[in-house]
Amino acid sequence: MADLATEAAEATEASVDPANWTCPAPLRDQPVIVMGHGGGGALSAELIEQVFAPAYGNPTLAALTDSAVLDLGGARLAFSTDSYVVRPLFFPGGSLGDLAVNGTVNDLAMSGARPAYLSTAFVLEEGVELAVVERIARAIGAAARAADVTVATGDTKVVESGHGDGVYVTTAGVGLVPDGVDIRPQRARPGDAVIVSGPIGLHGVAIMSVREGLEFGIEIASDTAPLAGLVAAMLAVTRDIHVLRDPTRGGLGASLNEIARASGTGVRLRERAVPVPDEVANACGFLGLDPLYVANEGRLVAFVPPQEAEAVLAAMRAHPQGGGAALIGECVEDHPGMVVVATALGGTRVVDLPLGEQLPRIC
Asked: Domain of life of the organism in this record (predicted)?
């Protein structure tokens, strides 16, 4: 018995030895790719800044916007590409197919462009059911028609069983940027009103509820939707919109940090003004998540000159995709490059750029 007790004690000591611990958060000096590199946070930014930007090295890429604005034959062309690896493939409110269209359409719209054409590239794992592929393809077609874009070209590759995860889709898109429109994160100015187009956090919580089999007493559906029509309605009020961003990976918190750092200004939010649905707040409280960092797929955040804020807000609320639009804060001279929130209790907290992502494989 004494020998058994000694062995148990030694095993316990080994189990609590800090040298044996592993950190669930990805370490920033990792020599290999970790999940956090795809999360839209600090690790993603470092991967781009330290690997891709030096390798490609050109002024167009240096802007690091969701879509590049190119001068081509006298026209201003927006160009974007994105890959979609969401798990599960189908979820309340949408599917991989919807995301593949809406995500790229929205990236183009965030530069003020009118999206026109898309390409699709499928990577299929050997053994995936043809019915699944057809369902995703039909969802892409329906979403493209709803967004008024044409899927003009594409590609298909197949990998061996066990070397993929069913279906991955990459889309690229092009669109035209109207004259007089200059929307980019560097244009944020102190005094700008910060407006979000509707309730946040729905997409991320919808994915997690299905993935983990969680029940919250009500079905939470993704907000995935095309936003080009909403942006056109905003530009009809004024073409002097400074910044647009769709807060997908990393959520609203990551997007605001990217804008603050790119413009060298501060952002101040009012916690009570940020529209977080009760079901999202309850789910995040249960899961230990911050709604500000939960992904969205049908929302945008806008930085608008203060004199235009009320008119833009009214135009957004009159549009189907902006009915829940809210003024949530302002751009400030204080704390340049930082985002802070005035809490409901009268305090202030910093909203930093997340290291990785609370919910991986979300889009």
From this structure: Bacteria
Residue 83's Cα: distance from chain center in Å?
12
Instruction: Domain 67-176: state its class.
Output: alpha beta
**312 vs 330: CA distance, rounded Å:** 15
Contact (Cβ atoms closer than 8 angstroms) between residue 147 and residue 175? no
In the sheet with 193-196, reading across from the earlier edge strand, the strands are 243-245, 301-304, 193-196, 326-332, 266-270, 339-342, 348-350
Reduce the DSSP state of residue 19 to 3 states and report it.
Answer: helix
Angstrom distance (rounded) from CA 111 to CA 113: 6
Q: Whose CA is closest to 209, among 196, 218, 200?
A: 218
CB-based contact 294:251 (threshold 8 Å):
yes
Residue with tokens 């979000």: 196
Q: Give every CB contact of residue 238 below 8 A, 6+ residues apart in sequence.
A: 304, 305, 308, 311, 312
User: Model pTM?
Assistant: 0.87
248, 297 contact by CB (below 8 A): yes
pLDDT tens, N- to C-terminus, the chain (363 residues): 444 344 434 443 433 343 443 344 454 566 888 877 776 777 777 887 888 888 888 888 877 778 999 998 889 999 999 999 999 999 999 999 999 999 999 999 999 999 999 999 999 999 999 999 999 999 999 999 999 999 999 999 999 999 989 999 999 999 999 999 999 999 999 999 999 999 999 999 999 888 878 777 778 999 999 999 999 999 999 999 999 999 998 999 999 999 999 999 999 999 999 999 999 999 898 888 899 999 999 999 999 999 999 999 999 999 999 999 999 999 999 999 999 999 988 899 999 987 766 667 788
Q: What is the DSSP string of 75-132?
A: EEEEEEEEEE--SSSEETTEEHHHHHHHHHHHHHHTTT-EEEEEEEEEEEETT--HHH
- In the chain, domain spans: 67-176, 185-350
